[in-house]
């Protein structure tokens, strides 16, 4: 897999020429069709445009059937190429559909959100949600290329940009103490996105190269994600209260930093740093008493679990992380109570 951070006007035509596909398809959603596709269309030869509804709520098998059906109608053979133009949902689902169509055709990720540029597009995790469970069905398959153009970040609402920034924070906390100290000095609007994206991509590429199928080290990328995914899943069926991925992961990082402190892995000063910064950027998700047990129940479906035991990636210092730490329901309740304040 190659990751290129450059204007698409430079990287995309060259990639398509090298790939020389028999057919070309571009998958977009309602948002990227309006804001991003017009910037990409002039760079493309003849192609099939596949448009799907936007949002996590459509990341399921029925939408996959739409994509597979469009590829079939266009008579795609195994030498075709799919370009996924969008955020994490498009990348996850479009990649999954390409990886399973006729047992696999080539695809490239063209991530348009900060979240997808620094995290979702890199690493080859593909999948869809199933029966309300996030990324429950999927495969590991590296894309033929990841082509990142940070100019797309200018099309994002501020809330979407802030959501993606949670993964940047995570990468710093698990792998780069100096960068953690640096980013806390900046407001979101003052960051150099080209530098920030390149830094996060380098961390994820390094981890994925060592452990492509998440047997060991790659699990550190899940810091904040066990309770964070559980919170995100809990709010999925609430259209007016739905959280963006990064908002839920920010909550998860506070909770899991607290667990790291409780287990003696970090000191109180680091916990306070994390808590203060994340609450300043993201605020606090309102959790009621009746939310506690359903959130904990969702952790029982986490893909890192083993033999029915919830296992987490927890930090053991600034820029350091370990994994496969068993955490009881009692500890998770304490973390949720701590987060609530």
Automatic annotation (TrEMBL):
Which stretches make up the 3-dehydroquinate synthase N-terminal domain?
50-162
Q: Where is the 3-dehydroquinate synthase C-terminal domain positioned along the sequence?
A: 164-305
Q: What is its EC number?
A: 4.2.3.4
Cofactor(s) needed for function = NAD(+); Co(2+)
Q: Name one Pfam family in it.
A: DHQ_synthase
MF annotations from Gene Ontology: 3-dehydroquinate synthase activity
Keywords of the record, alphabetical order, are: Cobalt, Lyase, Metal-binding, NAD, Nucleotide-binding, Zinc
What is the enzyme's main class? Answer: lyase
Q: Which Gene3D superfamilies match?
A: 3.40.50.1970, Dehydroquinate synthase-like - alpha domain
Q: Which InterPro entries match?
A: Dehydroquinate_synthase, DHQ_synth_AroB, DHQ_synth_fam, DHQS/DOIS_N, DHQS_C
Described function: Catalyzes the conversion of 3-deoxy-D-arabino-heptulosonate 7-phosphate (DAHP) to dehydroquinate (DHQ).
Please give the name of this protein.
3-dehydroquinate synthase
Q: Taxonomic lineage per UniProt?
A: Bacteria, Pseudomonadati, Bacteroidota, Cytophagia, Cytophagales
Q: Identify the gene encoding this protein.
A: aroB
């Amino acid at each position: 897999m190659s990751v290129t951070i450059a204007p698409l006007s430079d990287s995309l035509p060259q990639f398509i020429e090298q790939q020389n596909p028999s057919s070309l398809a571009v998958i977009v959603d309602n948002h990227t069709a309006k804001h991003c596709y017009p910037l990409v269309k002039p760079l493309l030869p003849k192609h099939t445009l596949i448009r799907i509804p936007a949002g996590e709520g459509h990341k399921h098998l029925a939408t996959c059937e739409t994509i597979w059906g469009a590829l079939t109608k266009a008579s795609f053979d195994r030498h075709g190429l799919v370009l996924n133009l969008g955020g994490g949902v498009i990348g996850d689902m479009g990649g999954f559909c390409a990886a399973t169509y006729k047992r696999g055709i080539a695809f490239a990720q063209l991530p348009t959100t900060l979240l997808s540029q620094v995290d979702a597009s890199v690493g080859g995790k593909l999948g869809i949600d199933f029966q309300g469970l996030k990324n429950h069905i999927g495969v590991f398959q590296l894309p033929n290329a990841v082509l990142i153009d940070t100019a797309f970040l200018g099309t994002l609402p501020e809330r979407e940009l802030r959501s993606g920034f949670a993964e940047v924070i995570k990468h710093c906390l698990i792998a780069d103490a100096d960068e953690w100290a640096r980013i806390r000095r900046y407001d979101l609007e003052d960051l150099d996105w080209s530098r920030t994206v390149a830094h996060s991509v380098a961390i994820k590429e390094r981890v994925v190269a060592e452990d492509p199928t998440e047997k060991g080290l790659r699990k550190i990328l899940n810091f904040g994600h066990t309770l964070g995914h559980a919170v995100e899943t809990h709010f999925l069926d609430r259209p007016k209260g739905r959280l963006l991925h990064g908002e839920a992961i920010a909550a998860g990082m506070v909770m899991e930093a607290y667990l790291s402190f409780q287990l003696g892995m970090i000191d109180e000063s680091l916990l306070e740093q994390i808590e203060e910064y994340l609450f300043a950027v993201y605020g606090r998700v309102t959790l009621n008493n009746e939310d506690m047990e359903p959130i904990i129940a969702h952790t029982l479906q986490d893909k890192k679990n083993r033999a029915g035991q919830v296992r987490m990636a927890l930090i053991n210092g600034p820029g350091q992380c370990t994994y496969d730490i068993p955490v009881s329901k009692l500890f998770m309740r304490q973390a949720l109570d701590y987060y609530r304040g």
